[in-house]
Specification:
Number of strands: 3
Largest sheet: 3 strands, mixed
Number of helices: 2
Strand order of the largest sheet: 1-2-3
Strand content: 15-25%
Structural class: alpha+beta
Amino acid sequence: MIGFDNWDAIAAHSRPRLTSIDMNLERLGAVAGRHLFAAIDGGDPPTSEQYPGRVVMRDSTAPVG
């Protein structure tokens, strides 16, 4: 089983500890805020950006092999 957003209160403290996708929401929020303030100030619209997530392996999954 795999969760999404890697919220530590759930993922690391569940039983078994939940493998989760970490989308680095703090970074995404900071970037979104900068784009918003730039738009308010009349700046150019942002281009498409990619921020890859990562899988945080915990006890709810096992390696294949």
